[in-house]
Amino acid sequence: MDRIALAPILRGAIMELTGAPVFLAWTQDVVDSAAPLSQEVLELATSKLHQDASPLREALKALQNSHGELPQALSTPNGGTFFLGASYDAAQKAMEAAPSITQHFFLQHDQATPSSGRGDVVKGRIALVTGGAQGFGAEIARGLADEGAFVWIADINEEGAAAFAAELNASGSTRAAAVAVDVSDESSVQAMAATIVAGTGGLDLLVSNAGVLRAGSVLQLEAHDFDFVTRINYTAFFLVVKHLAAVMAAQRQGGPTQSMDIVQINSKSGLEGSNKNGAYAGGKFGGLGLVQSFALELVEHGIKVNAICPGNFFDGPLWSHPENGLFVQYLRAGKVPGAQTVADVKAFYEAKVPMGRGCYGPDVLRAILYCVEQAYETGQALPVTGGQVMLK
Ligand SMILES: NC(=O)c1ccc[n+]([C@@H]2O[C@H](COP(=O)([O-])OP(=O)(O)OC[C@H]3O[C@@H](n4cnc5c(N)ncnc54)[C@H](O)[C@@H]3O)[C@@H](O)[C@H]2O)c1
Predict the structure, then answer these.
(1) Does residue 360 have an active-site annotation?
(2) What does CATH list as the number for 117-312+353-384?
(3) For position 116, what pLDDT does the model report?
(4) What value does the mean pLDDT take over residues 113-124?
(5) Is residue 364 within a helix (H) or strand (E), and if so which, with residue range?
(6) pTM given for the model
(7) Ranges of each domain in the chain
(8) What is the mean pLDDT of residues 60-74?
(9) Computed from CA positions of residues 240, 241, 243, 249, in that sequence, does the dihedral angle turn out positive or negative?
């Protein structure tokens, strides 16, 4: 039995039964007190031919009925054991306590986690943010963790992702984990998907945020720079959706009413052209084509796919890095007539926004929460630009 294939189906089935999110931990040890799942129901649930998880749900229901609750440990015929928890820490703790485990499972959430209404939609859920080590990605990851989600911080900058996860976990409970990935490399994305399933059992929200920018005139930009930008901003979205939507679809196979979300962090440059920045805008425009197409296809798996098109994040590293941020670059290049300082360049760009300021992480987070909360929308591109770009 392939536990990576099985885990999300099992997670979906458990969530269907309990109506609450769950985390799965796994050990290959045999735990005597675990409730056994039969070969037959697991084969039916995972077989490519049958894909019928209803016997698995019925088996779980029978266990629930006979114990009064779902047992916290479920063993599989070839020896491995899954541990269930209402949080990452609860599932890990159950696994650590395995030999002495009592067969009780309460789906109660950590009441200490505060939430502000809209954030309830991600509370206790499992999220993934690519490019989560800095910039918008870090703001989104922090915001989701603050709303009570568990967040996988995926980044090519392994050290940065690990340090940021440690920072989020410093408060005590485990709210985040780092996973190294190059989103433009399919085998790396595949390994990331396996790490996520092995660590938590599945995924509820994918935020595809990793992105790069190499500006340049069409007359001068090197083809390899164009390819680099396209590979990360456009192709990688396909790769990430391919491997993570498969995990989500498996959850839906286990639980036929489960709903999941993919949110692409696009850009206002996905809605209108960007002068001497064609590689970036082209990839972002293309991203919306993928969002719409994947939305049509994945609706049958209970997955909504939407894009958020933020305006410029002036306070983030891309613009404000003191050595190579865009403000410094534009000042040096004399791009803004009369500008003497970085502050002059920033004021010039802020004046282009009707609302007079750049976009912040919480602006984007609010839009993500809206996309998750809104059950009746998919395939949309939501501008978050302070009025700078409006839909036609
Ligand atoms: N900064 C802005 O003004 C702005 C505006 C609109 C949209 N966006 C979009 O928001 C997203 C984030 O932008 P940002 O400005 O925060 O960027 P950033 O450069 O600050 O951070 C990007 C993160 O992605 C990671 N990354 C880069 N290549 C990767 C790869 N191949 N695999 C995995 N991780 C990789 C980086 O290590 C970094 O942590 C991008 O999609 C960008 O297009 C940014």
Answers:
(1) no
(2) 3.40.50.720
(3) 56
(4) 78
(5) helix 361-373
(6) 0.96
(7) 3-100, 117-312+353-384
(8) 90
(9) positive
